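Morning. Coffee machine broken again, so started the prediction first thing and wrote up yesterday's gels while waiting. Chain of 78 residues, entered below exactly as on the submission form.
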Amino acid sequence: MRAPESQRVADHLREAILSGAIAPGERIRQEEPAERLGASRLPVREALRMLEAEGLTEHHPRREGVHGCPSWACTRWR
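Came back before lunch.
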């Protein structure tokens, strides 16, 4: 059985964050992973919420976007 699209996107983004491909504090635009993974923006939004709940992203509405985890939060995952 195939994982839900949002889980697939979350797994991809989690790996990118933990590997350093997405730097701490780097802005994550919904359009980029959606295009790269061939997904719509809805699963990307859901994935970013999942990662925020895990402490890997932070949502900053006034700064337009979601950002990769602060460096202190990423270290607890490594």
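The longest strand covers residues 57-60. Going to sketch it on the whiteboard this afternoon.
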